[in-house]
Amino acid sequence: MLIVLLCALLLDYFFGEPKKYHPLVGFGRFAAYLEERLNEDLLDKKVGFKAEKKPQTMQQNRINGLIAVLVCLVPAWWFTWLIISDGLSGMLLETIILYLALGLNSLKQHAQQVLQPLQNNQLDQARHALSLIVSRDTQQMDEEGVCRATTESVLENGSDAVFATIFWFLVAGAPGVVVYRLTNTLDAMWGYKTERYNNFGFFVARFDDLLNFIPARLTALSYALMGNWKNATKCWSKQGILWESPNAGVVMAAGAGALDVQLGGADQYHGEVKQRPDLGCGQKAETQTIHLACELVDHAVILWVVVVALICVPAWF
Prior knowledge:
This protein is mainly alpha-helical. The protein has twelve helices and five strands.
Protein backbone atom coordinates (compact mmCIF):
# COMPACT_ATOMS: atom_id res chain seq x y z
CA MET A 1 0.00 0.00 0.00
CA LEU A 2 2.76 2.45 0.94
CA ILE A 3 4.78 1.52 -2.16
CA VAL A 4 1.78 2.04 -4.44
CA LEU A 5 1.05 5.42 -2.83
CA LEU A 6 4.65 6.62 -3.14
CA CYS A 7 4.93 5.47 -6.76
CA ALA A 8 1.64 7.14 -7.69
CA LEU A 9 2.73 10.41 -6.05
CA LEU A 10 6.07 10.27 -7.89
CA LEU A 11 4.33 9.66 -11.22
CA ASP A 12 2.05 12.60 -10.53
CA TYR A 13 5.03 14.78 -9.57
CA PHE A 14 7.09 14.01 -12.68
CA PHE A 15 4.38 13.59 -15.31
CA GLY A 16 1.31 15.36 -13.96
CA GLU A 17 -2.10 14.79 -15.50
CA PRO A 18 -2.09 13.14 -18.95
CA LYS A 19 -2.66 15.79 -21.60
CA LYS A 20 -4.57 13.41 -23.88
CA TYR A 21 -6.76 10.36 -23.48
CA HIS A 22 -7.44 10.80 -19.77
CA PRO A 23 -10.03 8.17 -18.74
CA LEU A 24 -12.15 10.77 -16.93
CA VAL A 25 -12.66 12.66 -20.20
CA GLY A 26 -14.19 9.60 -21.83
CA PHE A 27 -16.20 8.90 -18.72
CA GLY A 28 -17.54 12.46 -18.76
CA ARG A 29 -18.76 12.01 -22.33
CA PHE A 30 -20.52 8.78 -21.41
CA ALA A 31 -22.14 10.46 -18.39
CA ALA A 32 -23.34 13.34 -20.59
CA TYR A 33 -24.82 10.81 -23.03
CA LEU A 34 -26.70 9.09 -20.20
CA GLU A 35 -28.07 12.35 -18.87
CA GLU A 36 -29.38 13.39 -22.29
CA ARG A 37 -31.50 10.24 -22.35
CA LEU A 38 -32.55 9.92 -18.71
CA ASN A 39 -32.91 13.46 -17.34
CA GLU A 40 -36.61 14.25 -17.81
CA ASP A 41 -36.13 17.89 -16.77
CA LEU A 42 -33.66 18.32 -19.63
CA LEU A 43 -35.96 16.54 -22.11
CA ASP A 44 -38.93 18.70 -21.08
CA LYS A 45 -36.86 21.85 -21.52
CA LYS A 46 -35.80 20.77 -25.01
CA VAL A 47 -39.40 20.36 -26.18
CA GLY A 48 -40.55 23.51 -24.39
CA PHE A 49 -42.61 21.71 -21.75
CA LYS A 50 -43.11 24.12 -18.84
CA ALA A 51 -45.95 22.51 -16.93
CA GLU A 52 -45.61 22.32 -13.17
CA LYS A 53 -43.74 19.23 -12.06
CA LYS A 54 -45.83 16.68 -10.24
CA PRO A 55 -44.32 14.99 -7.17
CA GLN A 56 -44.30 11.59 -8.93
CA THR A 57 -42.45 13.11 -11.90
CA MET A 58 -39.85 14.62 -9.59
CA GLN A 59 -39.46 11.29 -7.84
CA GLN A 60 -39.12 9.46 -11.15
CA ASN A 61 -36.37 11.79 -12.27
CA ARG A 62 -34.52 11.19 -9.01
CA ILE A 63 -34.81 7.47 -9.68
CA ASN A 64 -33.52 8.06 -13.20
CA GLY A 65 -30.55 9.87 -11.69
CA LEU A 66 -29.92 6.96 -9.34
CA ILE A 67 -30.05 4.51 -12.25
CA ALA A 68 -27.54 6.65 -14.15
CA VAL A 69 -25.20 6.66 -11.13
CA LEU A 70 -25.40 2.89 -10.78
CA VAL A 71 -24.80 2.36 -14.50
CA CYS A 72 -21.68 4.54 -14.23
CA LEU A 73 -20.26 3.16 -10.98
CA VAL A 74 -21.06 -0.54 -10.63
CA PRO A 75 -19.40 -1.81 -13.84
CA ALA A 76 -16.36 0.42 -13.20
CA TRP A 77 -16.01 -0.92 -9.64
CA TRP A 78 -16.38 -4.53 -10.76
CA PHE A 79 -13.91 -4.19 -13.65
CA THR A 80 -11.32 -2.50 -11.42
CA TRP A 81 -11.64 -5.20 -8.78
CA LEU A 82 -11.20 -7.83 -11.50
CA ILE A 83 -8.02 -6.43 -13.06
CA ILE A 84 -6.13 -5.78 -9.81
CA SER A 85 -6.63 -9.26 -8.37
CA ASP A 86 -3.52 -10.70 -10.04
CA GLY A 87 -0.41 -10.27 -7.86
CA LEU A 88 2.36 -8.02 -9.17
CA SER A 89 0.48 -6.92 -12.29
CA GLY A 90 -2.45 -5.98 -10.07
CA MET A 91 -0.13 -3.84 -7.95
CA LEU A 92 1.15 -2.10 -11.07
CA LEU A 93 -2.40 -1.40 -12.25
CA GLU A 94 -3.32 -0.06 -8.81
CA THR A 95 -0.41 2.36 -9.05
CA ILE A 96 -1.51 3.57 -12.47
CA ILE A 97 -5.14 3.97 -11.34
CA LEU A 98 -4.13 5.95 -8.25
CA TYR A 99 -1.79 8.10 -10.33
CA LEU A 100 -4.57 8.90 -12.82
CA ALA A 101 -6.97 9.74 -9.98
CA LEU A 102 -4.59 12.05 -8.11
CA GLY A 103 -4.68 15.72 -9.00
CA LEU A 104 -1.89 17.25 -6.90
CA ASN A 105 0.33 18.34 -9.76
CA SER A 106 -2.64 19.54 -11.81
CA LEU A 107 -3.97 21.49 -8.83
CA LYS A 108 -0.73 23.41 -8.47
CA GLN A 109 -0.38 23.95 -12.22
CA HIS A 110 -3.82 25.58 -12.39
CA ALA A 111 -2.94 27.80 -9.44
CA GLN A 112 0.35 28.74 -11.09
CA GLN A 113 -1.47 29.71 -14.30
CA VAL A 114 -3.36 32.31 -12.26
CA LEU A 115 -0.39 33.34 -10.13
CA GLN A 116 2.06 34.10 -12.95
CA PRO A 117 -0.13 36.70 -14.72
CA LEU A 118 -0.83 38.35 -11.36
CA GLN A 119 2.89 38.66 -10.71
CA ASN A 120 3.27 40.25 -14.16
CA ASN A 121 0.38 42.70 -13.54
CA GLN A 122 -1.77 40.96 -16.17
CA LEU A 123 -5.08 40.92 -14.30
CA ASP A 124 -7.25 40.09 -17.32
CA GLN A 125 -5.16 37.02 -18.12
CA ALA A 126 -5.34 35.93 -14.47
CA ARG A 127 -9.13 36.32 -14.52
CA HIS A 128 -9.33 34.13 -17.62
CA ALA A 129 -7.13 31.44 -16.08
CA LEU A 130 -9.26 31.50 -12.94
CA SER A 131 -12.47 31.17 -14.97
CA LEU A 132 -11.24 27.75 -16.14
CA ILE A 133 -11.19 26.33 -12.60
CA VAL A 134 -14.10 28.02 -10.76
CA SER A 135 -17.81 28.39 -11.49
CA ARG A 136 -18.15 32.01 -10.32
CA ASP A 137 -17.97 35.06 -12.58
CA THR A 138 -14.42 36.37 -12.82
CA GLN A 139 -14.66 39.21 -15.39
CA GLN A 140 -15.07 42.00 -12.81
CA MET A 141 -12.85 40.63 -10.04
CA ASP A 142 -10.12 42.80 -8.60
CA GLU A 143 -6.72 41.34 -7.73
CA GLU A 144 -7.74 40.49 -4.16
CA GLY A 145 -10.83 38.68 -5.44
CA VAL A 146 -8.77 36.62 -7.88
CA CYS A 147 -6.29 35.68 -5.16
CA ARG A 148 -9.11 34.80 -2.77
CA ALA A 149 -10.95 32.61 -5.29
CA THR A 150 -7.75 30.83 -6.34
CA THR A 151 -6.79 30.12 -2.73
CA GLU A 152 -10.27 28.75 -2.02
CA SER A 153 -9.98 26.50 -5.08
CA VAL A 154 -6.59 25.15 -4.00
CA LEU A 155 -7.80 24.37 -0.47
CA GLU A 156 -11.11 22.81 -1.51
CA ASN A 157 -9.75 20.79 -4.43
CA GLY A 158 -6.85 19.66 -2.29
CA SER A 159 -9.46 17.73 -0.33
CA ASP A 160 -11.31 16.37 -3.36
CA ALA A 161 -8.50 15.62 -5.78
CA VAL A 162 -5.78 14.60 -3.34
CA PHE A 163 -6.69 13.65 0.20
CA ALA A 164 -10.09 12.02 -0.39
CA THR A 165 -8.53 10.02 -3.24
CA ILE A 166 -5.73 8.81 -0.97
CA PHE A 167 -8.21 8.08 1.83
CA TRP A 168 -10.38 5.84 -0.32
CA PHE A 169 -7.30 4.09 -1.68
CA LEU A 170 -6.22 3.30 1.90
CA VAL A 171 -9.73 2.13 2.82
CA ALA A 172 -10.82 0.23 -0.30
CA GLY A 173 -7.89 0.06 -2.71
CA ALA A 174 -8.15 0.92 -6.39
CA PRO A 175 -11.88 0.03 -6.60
CA GLY A 176 -12.54 2.58 -3.86
CA VAL A 177 -10.50 5.19 -5.73
CA VAL A 178 -12.45 4.57 -8.94
CA VAL A 179 -15.84 4.80 -7.24
CA TYR A 180 -14.83 7.97 -5.42
CA ARG A 181 -13.33 9.81 -8.42
CA LEU A 182 -16.20 8.85 -10.73
CA THR A 183 -18.72 9.98 -8.12
CA ASN A 184 -16.80 13.24 -7.73
CA THR A 185 -16.88 13.74 -11.50
CA LEU A 186 -20.61 13.03 -11.67
CA ASP A 187 -21.23 15.47 -8.83
CA ALA A 188 -19.27 18.13 -10.72
CA MET A 189 -21.56 17.50 -13.72
CA TRP A 190 -24.95 16.86 -12.08
CA GLY A 191 -24.71 18.03 -8.47
CA TYR A 192 -26.07 21.54 -8.94
CA LYS A 193 -29.25 22.88 -7.33
CA THR A 194 -30.68 24.14 -10.60
CA GLU A 195 -33.88 23.41 -12.50
CA ARG A 196 -32.01 20.97 -14.72
CA TYR A 197 -30.10 19.04 -12.05
CA ASN A 198 -31.98 19.45 -8.76
CA ASN A 199 -33.82 16.15 -9.17
CA PHE A 200 -31.59 14.19 -11.53
CA GLY A 201 -28.47 14.94 -9.50
CA PHE A 202 -30.12 14.44 -6.11
CA PHE A 203 -28.56 11.07 -5.27
CA VAL A 204 -25.09 11.68 -6.68
CA ALA A 205 -24.81 14.96 -4.75
CA ARG A 206 -25.61 13.24 -1.48
CA PHE A 207 -23.44 10.23 -2.23
CA ASP A 208 -20.54 12.57 -2.95
CA ASP A 209 -21.18 14.38 0.35
CA LEU A 210 -21.13 11.02 2.13
CA LEU A 211 -17.89 9.87 0.50
CA ASN A 212 -16.21 13.19 1.34
CA PHE A 213 -17.45 13.50 4.93
CA ILE A 214 -14.51 11.82 6.69
CA PRO A 215 -11.78 12.83 4.18
CA ALA A 216 -12.84 16.48 4.40
CA ARG A 217 -12.40 16.52 8.17
CA LEU A 218 -9.07 14.70 7.95
CA THR A 219 -8.00 17.31 5.40
CA ALA A 220 -9.09 20.12 7.72
CA LEU A 221 -7.13 18.49 10.54
CA SER A 222 -4.07 18.18 8.29
CA TYR A 223 -4.26 21.86 7.32
CA ALA A 224 -4.50 22.79 10.99
CA LEU A 225 -1.49 20.66 11.90
CA MET A 226 0.61 22.11 9.07
CA GLY A 227 -0.41 25.74 9.68
CA ASN A 228 -1.68 27.95 12.47
CA TRP A 229 -3.35 25.35 14.67
CA LYS A 230 -5.17 27.78 16.95
CA ASN A 231 -6.73 29.86 14.19
CA ALA A 232 -7.46 26.86 11.99
CA THR A 233 -9.39 24.96 14.66
CA LYS A 234 -11.24 28.10 15.74
CA CYS A 235 -12.33 28.94 12.18
CA TRP A 236 -13.17 25.29 11.51
CA SER A 237 -15.53 25.04 14.48
CA LYS A 238 -17.19 28.45 14.13
CA GLN A 239 -17.23 29.13 10.38
CA GLY A 240 -17.18 25.74 8.66
CA ILE A 241 -20.71 24.83 9.73
CA LEU A 242 -22.10 28.03 8.17
CA TRP A 243 -21.07 27.06 4.64
CA GLU A 244 -23.62 25.65 2.21
CA SER A 245 -21.54 22.53 1.56
CA PRO A 246 -21.08 20.33 4.66
CA ASN A 247 -17.58 19.38 3.55
CA ALA A 248 -16.14 22.34 1.61
CA GLY A 249 -16.88 24.67 4.51
CA VAL A 250 -14.78 22.85 7.09
CA VAL A 251 -11.90 22.39 4.64
CA MET A 252 -11.73 26.02 3.52
CA ALA A 253 -12.35 27.42 7.00
CA ALA A 254 -9.54 25.34 8.48
CA GLY A 255 -7.27 26.15 5.55
CA ALA A 256 -7.99 29.88 5.78
CA GLY A 257 -7.30 29.83 9.51
CA ALA A 258 -4.10 27.86 8.99
CA LEU A 259 -2.92 30.48 6.48
CA ASP A 260 -4.11 33.47 8.57
CA VAL A 261 -6.05 34.82 5.59
CA GLN A 262 -9.59 36.06 4.95
CA LEU A 263 -11.62 34.05 2.44
CA GLY A 264 -15.33 33.65 1.64
CA GLY A 265 -17.60 36.67 1.43
CA ALA A 266 -19.66 37.94 -1.50
CA ASP A 267 -19.06 36.65 -5.03
CA GLN A 268 -20.97 36.71 -8.29
CA TYR A 269 -22.40 33.54 -9.82
CA HIS A 270 -24.16 33.58 -13.20
CA GLY A 271 -24.83 37.31 -12.95
CA GLU A 272 -26.16 37.24 -9.38
CA VAL A 273 -24.28 38.29 -6.27
CA LYS A 274 -24.21 35.53 -3.65
CA GLN A 275 -23.37 36.43 -0.07
CA ARG A 276 -21.24 33.63 1.36
CA PRO A 277 -20.07 33.36 4.98
CA ASP A 278 -16.69 34.84 5.85
CA LEU A 279 -13.90 32.33 6.35
CA GLY A 280 -10.57 32.58 8.10
CA CYS A 281 -9.00 35.59 9.80
CA GLY A 282 -6.03 37.89 9.43
CA GLN A 283 -4.90 39.60 6.24
CA LYS A 284 -6.66 39.77 2.88
CA ALA A 285 -5.67 37.34 0.14
CA GLU A 286 -2.74 38.34 -2.06
CA THR A 287 -0.49 36.64 -4.60
CA GLN A 288 1.69 35.15 -1.86
CA THR A 289 -1.42 33.53 -0.37
CA ILE A 290 -1.83 31.31 -3.45
CA HIS A 291 1.75 30.11 -3.10
CA LEU A 292 1.28 29.45 0.61
CA ALA A 293 -1.93 27.49 -0.05
CA CYS A 294 -0.07 25.21 -2.47
CA GLU A 295 2.68 24.74 0.11
CA LEU A 296 0.09 23.89 2.76
CA VAL A 297 -1.34 21.14 0.55
CA ASP A 298 2.18 19.80 -0.13
CA HIS A 299 3.02 19.72 3.57
CA ALA A 300 -0.25 17.96 4.34
CA VAL A 301 0.56 15.31 1.71
CA ILE A 302 3.93 14.72 3.36
CA LEU A 303 2.13 14.35 6.69
CA TRP A 304 -0.19 11.71 5.23
CA VAL A 305 2.72 9.76 3.71
CA VAL A 306 4.57 9.80 7.05
CA VAL A 307 1.47 8.55 8.90
CA VAL A 308 0.91 5.76 6.36
CA ALA A 309 4.59 4.80 6.62
CA LEU A 310 4.41 4.66 10.42
CA ILE A 311 1.46 2.28 10.09
CA CYS A 312 2.77 0.10 7.24
CA VAL A 313 6.50 -0.21 7.92
CA PRO A 314 6.21 -1.83 11.40
CA ALA A 315 3.71 -4.29 9.92
CA TRP A 316 6.35 -5.50 7.44
CA PHE A 317 8.56 -6.60 10.34
